[in-house]
Write a structure and sequence with these properties.
The complex is a heterodimer of chains A (262) and B (787). Chain A has 11 helices and 12 strands. Chain A is of the alpha+beta class and 262 residues long. Chain A has a 5-stranded antiparallel β-sheet. Chain A has a 4-stranded antiparallel β-sheet with strand order 9-10-11-12, sandwiched between helices. In chain A, helix 3 packs antiparallel against helix 4. Chain B is of the alpha+beta class and 787 residues long. Chain B has 19 helices and 30 strands. Chain B has a 7-stranded mixed β-sheet with strand order 3-5-1-13-10-11-12. Chain B is globular, with a radius of gyration of 27 Å. The chains are: A alpha+beta (262), B alpha+beta (787).
Chain lengths: 262, 787
């Protein structure tokens, strides 16, 4: 780890100001950034801690019935909430207890690791990512592996999830890291079904539209069984699984998510 | 009735109080006044020529004491290899120099090039980034078979090729084996890989060294399984320090599994540098460094052929193995695929003809050496897998084909030069079938089928050789060391005892079980006995702990020393009771005179030895301290039957281990609870190898599995509740305790049982799958089912 200054702002406004400094970097729960710093793979001059911002911590419902989660809310808090079963289920299986007690939803979405769980929930729910300057629809937010629509110094202050009729997340773990080798989030809304896939694609989290169409017509495991698995081209091919294997798992995990959706 | 003390009692591990309450004292807990920190700059390419190393800017960085490169080690020896193998043509192996720091070339990712010694680790790392190293990358040598082709790039320019040795065993059997295979009713052939593993002890390696210029004495604290071996190798072969000026201490050590046997460059570096910079030097491996600098394990590629008659009797066995040595020869590396592997190829079977060919190959990878089991897992895996395949090809039940070929008469001389003293393989097989409810398998398989899962059962029967080893024998085989063990039993004046052993405990519980042995012999409470180990200034020259040798060899040394103590104490007791020495009996900590009610307590005799007012000084010396060195007459041969029951998810290929049973014959047992714990640990590592662990390099020689993000360790939720039994006992015939050793068995017997279970599950479901290479990760199983 290189030397750095740490700032603990008391308000979002102060945090934004601090992030305007030279080579300043936002620090959420630190579950990715701290190991990166320890390996000397990043050298920010200042870390701006967001975890102490009371206005970014907590879970509530807005007037539209959406579940609103502060950007600095931990996975453990979301897991314990339970008012959106699919989302709480997903949060309860991220990492281990230590990770869930430190890691935050804003940090995870800002990092957009291609194998992280939260991006699948955000995209699969058609969530709205709220920042200090604007609101971004999930469909416009994820831009590929580790890439998002966030601008320099922009902070995720809140994420708003419309609560579906039914939902479920199925994660097939990469055995070493226990990130998602393939994770599929299925959410059935009045307006239609959304299916989001993480872990599989070289493009990061994405929707499986063929499955959405099939499930809109018939929300059943049979509808998925009748589909061809997506193509293995463009899927991640590594030590833990080929592209074809991942593509196959997308179909299997989608079917299981539909079966388990509640 | 379970005993409440002594041999056979499940005494609680006394060392756990300090381990579980954070009071253990590990090498990294040792901080010496004024110490500096070493940071190793390691190669990030697999193979390259070092054109230049410019340390000038780095030397001016804050806190830098000195920066070392190979030129500082001119005139210093290389890291030695402790075993010289002679090949099938009578030539000795090719043995390249292993410099402390890379000389001219780097040969694997992680090969140390330079070391910064500074006031703090952060300053050392900062300065390391300012060291400019210019390397021209060379083609990496990775595939063993390609490495042996004519014109292949060489890992070592001064060797004739990448072949370390071409070993044939038993060479005289070669033609007879070929003939037997040609004429056999059926030959089963299997090609397989034994996957490369990283040992991953919980505690990474650490070295802290100091030099006292007033006495010219060095002290090295290091994470070692055998401090005397390190003192000998480093003192005599690398740095030229006589033993009386070099103390090596291995305090509490957090797991070894083989990877802490070897003498490593970092130990020699810290010891050397401590004198150069005039202050203590400390190095603590990061976990990332451990992946690329701890010796790896296994990495064999094998073709095995088993010839049978029409009834499935084994006629001949032939193996062709390529064994990866990595870039340099680690301490015991050459012996693992040869003398600890070829000699075990008979397994539990009376196969009359066996020929083993092993080509050891240099590649641009981390050196490979012993890892829990060391050669015996590789032998057991290929043999038990080919037997399983043979049973299926012959239409004979896998259990029956084993029984049909079991050795039943002992002693038994195998065609691969070892003699098994005892064993009862039918007994362990019977026990296993009972423990694993084999009779109920079909019903369970039906249940799985209803749930859409494929259930399978796999069996393995292993033999291993422990208690390494008769020194004169291993000397003939190329060992450059003796393999006895030592013990000093020091009885204190009030009767308590300190036992100084050359064995080293790094998790095995020696402090408990060794004390049980001595306590049992004298008949006193275990708590009166203290086991001292891990410090060359305290213990007699001993060879350390590996190869499941500690109770069989170290324990035997302790018995011999205690026998001497008892003999002398009886003389003292005879004097005190004015009786004849021949009439003295020792029982429950008291000396009595046979046929009388005369008695003198243990403590009275020990006090008399040190306060010799009423003492036969004209006959014996005062004091009560004895040393024994024990050199075993043979290896010991634990054996056992292992059964694994799995369920495969046909949609994902994921394997769930539902049950694992182990019926072992370890000979006599000192502490059943500790033995059970050793088997549990071994099973976890064996299942780890078979199911999840894999050290992988890419085509450029970069380590793909260089952290826990990609190297999978087995976790509690990967493992079933283990069903362990060691009630089948055929005591070892040639050591005083009748013990065989239990440390590695679990890791040896489990991988073939698991792989055979998965193959069984797939075949029952109609898949034409005869083998899957380890680890059996979901993607591999799925690919095998869908190929």
């Amino acid at each position: 780890m290189y030397d750095f200054e740490i700032e603990k702002p008391g308000s979002i406004a102060d945090a934004v100001k601090a992030l305007g400094g030279d080579e300043a970097q936002a620090l959420g729960g630190g579950q990715t950034l701290i190991p990166t710093l320890k390996q000397r793979l990043a050298s920010p001059s200042t870390l701006v801690s967001l975890s102490g911002l009371a206005e970014m911590v907590g879970i509530c419902k807005d007037d539209d019935g959406r579940l609103c989660i502060g950007g600095a809310t931990t996975h453990a808090a979301v897991a314990a909430d339970g008012s959106y079963a699919g989302l709480s289920g997903l949060a309860s299986h991220i990492g281990d207890p230590a990770v869930r007690n430190r890691g935050t939803i804003g940090g995870s979405l800002a990092n957009n690791d291609p194998s992280a769980c939260y991006p699948a929930a955000a995209l699969g729910s058609g969530a709205t990512i709220v920042t200090n300057t604007r609101e971004i629809a999930a469909d416009d937010y994820f831009k590929g592996m580790f890439e998002t629509a966030l601008k320099e110094g922009e902070i995720i202050t809140e994420v708003k999830f419309p609560i579906p009729e039914k939902s479920n997340y199925q994660k097939f773990v990469q055995p070493a890291s226990r990130f998602a080798l393939v994770g599929v989030f299925v959410a059935k809304y009045e307006g239609g079904v959304r299916v989001a896939v993480t872990g599989a694609s070289e493009e990061g989290v994405h929707r499986w539209t063929a499955a959405e169409e099939a499930l809109n017509a018939n929300f059943s495991t049979e509808a998925i069984a009748a589909l061809d698995a997506p193509s293995g081209d463009g899927m991640i091919n590594d030590l833990h699984g080929s592209g074809d294997y991942r593509a196959h798992l997308v179909k299997v995990m989608t079917g299981r998510a539909v079966a388990a959706a509640a | 009735m379970p005993k409440d003390g002594g041999i056979g009692a499940s005494s609680k591990r006394r060392e756990d109080l300090r381990f579980l309450t954070g009071k253990g004292k590990y090498t990294d807990d040792i901080n010496l006044q004024g110490q500096a920190y070493a940071y190793f700059i390691r190669s990030d390419v697999a193979h390259g020529t070092i054109n230049s190393i410019d340390t000038s800017a780095a030397e001016k960085m804050p806190g830098v004491e000195q920066i070392f490169t190979a030129k500082d080690f001119e005139g210093v020896g290389g890291v030695p290899c402790g075993w010289q193998v002679t090949d099938r043509h009578g030539e000795v192996m090719q043995e390249p120099k292993h410099p402390v720091l890379a000389e001219g070339k780097v040969r694997h990712v992680g090969d140390p090039i330079a070391v910064v010694v500074a006031d703090s680790l952060a300053e050392a790392r900062d300065a390391a980034e300012a060291v400019e190293i210019d390397i021209t990358e060379l083609e990496p040598v990775l595939n063993m078979k390609d490495a042996l082709k004519d014109g292949a790039t060489k890992v070592h320019d001064d060797l004739t090729s990448n072949l370390c040795y071409d070993w044939g065993f038993v060479e005289e059997n070669r033609e007879a084996v070929d003939e037997a295979i040609k004429g056999a009713h059926h030959v089963t052939t299997l090609e397989l890989k034994n996957n490369r593993l990283v040992a991953n002890p919980m505690e990474p390696r650490v070295a802290v060294a100091e030099f006292d210029s007033s006495t010219e004495e060095y002290t090295l604290y290091t994470t070692s399984q055998n401090p005397h071996v390190i003192r000998l190798l480093m003192g005599a072969f690398v740095l030229g320090i006589p033993e009386h000026r070099l103390r090596v201490v291995a305090p509490d050590v957090g797991g070894g599994f083989g990877a802490k046997i070897y003498h490593y460059a970092e130990e020699a570096f810290c010891t050397f540098a401590a004198k150069q910079v005039g202050r203590p030097v400390k190095w603590t491996s990061s976990r990332s460094e451990a992946f690329m600098s701890d010796a790896h394990g296994r990495d064999h590629v094998t073709k095995i052929e088993l010839a049978m008659d029409k009834d499935g009797h084994f006629l001949a066995l032939r193996t062709d193995t390529h064994a990866n040595m990595g870039a340099y020869l680690s301490t015991f590396a050459p012996s693992i695929p040869t003398w600890l592997h070829g000699t075990l190829m008979a397994g539990n079977y009376k196969t009359p003809l066996i020929y083993v060919n092993v080509k050891a190959v240099f590649t641009n990878t981390v050196p490979v050496d012993a890892y829990r089991g060391a050669g015996r897992p590789e032998a057991t895996f290929q043999l038990e897998r080919v037997v399983d395949k043979a049973a299926r090809e012959m239409g004979i039940d896998p259990i029956e084909i084993r029984r049909r070929n079991f050795i039943t008469e002992f002693p038994y001389a195998t065609p691969v030069a070892v003699e098994y003293d005892t064993g009862d393989y039918h007994a362990t097989m019977d026990k296993l079938l009972e423990m694993s409810d084999h009779a109920g398998f079909d019903k369970r398989a039906e249940e799985s089928k209803k749930n859409g899962k494929l259930r399978g059962f796999g069996i393995a029967h292993y033999i291993e050789a422990c208690g390494i080893a008769p020194s004169n024998l291993v000397g003939q085989l190329g060992a450059r060391a003796g393999l006895y063990e030592s013990a000093t039993v020091r009885v204190n004046a009030t009767g308590s005892i300190s036992v100084m052993t050359g064995s080293h405990s790094h998790g095995q519980g020696h402090e408990t079980s060794f004390a049980q042995v001595v306590a049992d012999m004298i008949g006193i409470d275990e708590q009166q006995i203290d086991i001292v180990h891990g410090d060359t200034s305290k213990t007699p020259m001993g060879m350390g702990t590996y190869g499941s040798r500690s109770i069989a060899v170290g324990g035997s040394a302790m018995v011999r020393a205690t026998e001497k103590i008892i003999a002398k104490a009886k003389k003292i007791a005879a004097h005190l009771m004015e009786a004849s020495e021949g009439d003295i009996e020792l029982k429950d900590g008291a000396f009595t005179v046979a046929g009388t009610d005369k008695s003198v307590a243990w403590g009275d005799v020990t006090l008399a030895a040190y306060v010799p007012h009423n003492y036969p000084l004209e006959e014996i010396e005062p004091g009560l301290e004895e040393t024994a060195f024990y050199d075993p007459a043979n290896f010991t041969y634990p054996s056992g039957a292992y059964g694994c029951e799995v369920e495969v998810d046909p949609e994902t290929g994921k394997v769930t281990v539902l049950g694992f049973s182990a019926a072992d014959d370890f000979g006599n047992i000192i502490n059943p609870m500790i033995v059970e714990g050793q088997v549990h640990g071994g099973l976890a590592q064996g299942i780890g190898q078979a199911l999840v662990e894999n050290c992988a390099y890419d085509e450029n020689g970069q380590l793909l599995s260089g952290s826990y993000m990609d190297y999978t360790m087995p976790r509690a939720d990967d493992l079933p509740m283990f069903n362990v039994d060691h009630s089948s006992i055929t005591p070892c015939t040639h050591n005083p305790l009748g013990v065989k050793g239990c440390g590695e068995a679990g890791a040896i017997g489990s991988p073939p049982a698991l792989v055979s279970a998965v193959v069984d599950a797939l075949q029952r479901a109609g898949h034409d799958v005869t083998h899957i290479d380890m680890p059996l990760t979901p993607d591999r199983v799925w690919a095998a089912m869908n190929s």
